[in-house]
Amino acid sequence: MNEPAKLRLLGNAAAWMSIAVRHLRASGPLRLLPVRSRLFIKYVALFVGMVSITLLANGASEIWFLNREHEASLVHIAREQADGAAAKISQFVKGIEAQLGWTVQVPWDVSTFAQRRIDAWRLLRQVSAISELEQIDPAGLVQLRISRTEPDEVGSGTDVSREPKFRDALLHKSYYGPVYFRHNSEPYMTLALAGARDAGVSAAEVNLTFMWDVVSMIKVGERGLAYVVDAQGRLIAHPDISMVLRNTDLSGLPQVQAALAAVAGRASESGQAARDLEGREVLTSYAEIAPLGWLVFVELPIDEAYAPLRTTIIRTVLLLLAALGLALFGGMFLVRKMVVPIETLRAGAARIGSGDLAQRISIKTGDELESLADQFNEMAARLQDSHANLEAQVERRTRQLEQSVAELRALGEVSQAVSSTLNPENVLNTIVAKAVQLSSTTAGSIYVFDAQQQIFDLRATYGMDAATIAAFAAYKMAISEKNVAMALARQEPVQIPDFRDEPAGPMKDLILGSGYRAILVAPLLWQEEIAGLLVVRRREPGEFPKSTVDLIKTFAAQSVQAIENARLFSELEEKSLQVEIESRHKSQFLANMSHELRTPLNAILGYTELVLDRIYGEIPDRMRGVMERVQFNGHHLLKLINDVLDLAKIEAGQFTLEMAEYSMKDVVEGVLDAVEPLAGGKRIAVRGEISPNLPLGWGDEGRVRQVLLNLVGNAIKFTDAGEVSVRASAVDHSLLVAVKDTGSGISETDQSRIFDEFQQADSSSIRRKGGTGLGLSIAKRIIEMHGGCIWVESALGEGSTFSFTLPIAQEQKTTQP
User: How far apart are CA 784 and CA 517, in angstroms?
Assistant: First the structure.
């Protein structure tokens, strides 16, 4: 109600009171009418009826909308799961198709036949799902057949030019054959791809049982599953692979029939209830796997799908029943709060009207009835004492304002202490001191809760001597203490006006023995968890005013915030230390494991070298090629292990440098000699530019050579034409080495990350050129450990220049300009 309305109500009440007084004086004493029972019953019935209708209407509409939304959500989720499963199956087939595409990249020629055969064998090793591969020349004649189970056929010349796998592949570039079951067991399909002009056709027999891995990883609820059928409704992928191997026909299931019919009619239908092979009722949805014509189904048991909805409905019904019961009791309580003040108001008005001007009507409802009663009292007070107590009221109000200002100032000081320091002792001492001073009590304490021992430890005090503090500190206040438990249960301050009235016990002896009579206990709660207690004590018995209780609640909130700030800061320090220790352990483990891996790998490379050197006799050319690839990949793996070992040693703090004088001229010339065969194989010129009178360097010569060899090797690897130059000079009392190439260059975005671990400028170049992505990171660490720095200057299409600086020998610094 706004202020003008209140004034009008009070004015009307005053006028009514004046008329009532004149009437009562003229007509005699007032008789009270028996209205309580009628008002009570009428308002209770009205309140309960309105609440009941509202709750029932709201509950019914909520359940109806919830059911609709849940059904729509289930259909949408089922459709999304089916589409996602179809995408994974399609990606599986496309992956095989992409691998098969490498075998039709070159035209048919006698010179490429050996390479085609190698590619075919490599494809069978890399793609487990392909069990047989045919290479068909442009005339439709099978020139090569490689199988996992049968002998290879070379140059059989079988004519397949009229078969769909050849004819359709040439026409559409790809051919997906129908699913067939070998030996009535495993499902297969024929996948054929045609290459560019005169490249022929590659046809692969794909074992579809490998799709078991794909469908097994598709998660559909707790008990749901996904499976795949072909265009005839036969099962070709299922988490239970035995069903696939039994050549199970699912075309009789209603959901499969409906899906096949919908796909044939180009309709869109998904998300329906059906029964699976075991007769269970399930919520099923499907999606077509393009362009194979297969269907992937996802099924979820109906009882699992609708379990959350049933639980929600039951909970809603229970809440409605509880709310109706609460409405009944609440209505009785509220109506009683309404009727009793009305009767009190009528009785008081009658006595004032009879001439008893000392009568005061006491109604504490906080609404218009209380305002009306206050108006009656105010009118009686004016007639009784007029303005006799005006000065006393002003003085009392002034004291209240001064108290409020002091409280605000103290709260500001406490807030500043909480936000300016993480030392809980200083903050808690400030809080308890201000709480005691403003509450006009004798002493106070703050306790912090020990969750392990379930006790409260004394942390801060005010107004207590040393002996009293020692006595209270020695007493371990348990969480089961009656007053403590009551305060925690209510989450409100609990006061004891006089401890002499409490039952006998150690706490009573301690309080009374210290000279205190009344205490106020406020719980410190943080996110409904126990943090501690704020206690103020007074030597005089009696109730604490409400203003004091409210003030202590405010200080309790400030106390728990200070305790929580300190605890969080301590946890942050512990977590940081733990992360640092775990990182050091990881690096130590990686360093040890990399060292252990190098020993057997060196043995493998050694025996490979002996075989290639004919120590064990002559070997066929085909085996030599395999051994050379083993040797090449072994050296590549050894380099990777060495890089990982260096990086792990650096992170574990075990990487040390053997510092000594060395010649940068010798380092550059040695690196250029080492990379000469690599550059000659690519017909790239490599040259060095070494300044005359180059001073000696100070550092680990072997590690410097490792850095330079890595940079020059990278420059040659990423340069297809042109040259690579190495320039060494002395600048500003440091050695400056720059490796410049005419390669493809590095973009500005990639320049910021190529010195990070496992990073290179271009993912496609990683596949073409190889590499671990660790060389530049290790080089940066080595240069920085020498006290130097490394950087790159590059632009796309303009080559790159990697530069680094190193210290020179100490005695030669004075000779530099």
Answer: 71
Q: Which of the 8 DSSP states describes residue 584?
A: H
Q: Which of 106-110, 372-376, 429-433, 688-692: highest mean pLDDT?
A: 688-692
What residue type is 254 in one-letter code? P
Helical spans, DSSP H, in 440-505: 466-474, 482-490
Alpha carbon dihedral 560, 561, 562, 564, in 10-degree steps, equals: 80
Share of the chain above pLDDT 70, in %: 79
- As a whole number, mean pLDDT of residues 770-789 equals 83
Distance CA(74)–CA(160), nearest Å, equals 49
Are the C-beta atoms of 205 and 179 separated by less than 8 Å? no
What pLDDT does 527 receive? 76
pLDDT over 80 at 594, yes or no:
no
- Tell me the three state secondary structure of residue 142: strand
Average pLDDT, the chain: 78
Question: How confident is the model over 169-187, as a mean pLDDT?
Answer: 85
> Which amino acid is present at 644?
V
The span from the CA of 299 to the CA of 286, in Å, is 9
Helix orientation angle between 701-717 and 775-785, rounded to the nearest 10 degrees: 150
Look at residue 803 in the predicted model and tell me its pLDDT.
Answer: 95
Alpha carbons within 13 angstroms on the beta-carbon side of residue 682 total 20
Specify the DSSP element, H or E, that contains 226. strand 225-229
Residues comprising the chain, all counted: 817
How far apart, in whole angstroms, are the C-alpha atoms of residue 314 and residue 321? 11
Q: Residue 194 in contact with residue 264, Cβ under 8 Å?
A: no
Please name the amino acid found at residue 609. E
pLDDT at 590 over 70: no
Q: What is the DSSP letter of 234?
A: B
Cα angle 37, 41, 42 (rounded to 5 degrees) comes to 115
Starting at the earlier edge strand, list the strands of the sheet with 235-237.
Answer: 235-237, 225-229, 294-301, 281-289, 272-275
- Main-chain dihedrals φ then ψ at residue 752, nearest 5 degrees: -80, -10
* Percent of residues in the chain assigned helix, strand, coil, to nearest 5: 55, 20, 25
- CB of 169 closer than 8 Å to CB of 195: no
**Stated pTM of the model:** 0.36
Cα–Cα dist 528/24, whole Å: 58
pLDDT tens per residue across span 304-362: 877 777 787 788 788 878 877 777 777 677 666 666 777 777 777 777 666 666 667 77
Neighbour-count burial for 396-409, b at 16+ CB within 10 Å, e otherwise: eeeeeeeeeeebee
pLDDT digits (tens, 9 = 90+) for 34-51: 444 566 677 777 777 777
| Distance in angstroms (rounded) separating the CA atoms of residues 135 and 470 | 95
| Residues contacting residue 462 through CB under 8 Å, at least 6 positions apart | 429, 432, 433, 435, 436, 443, 444, 445
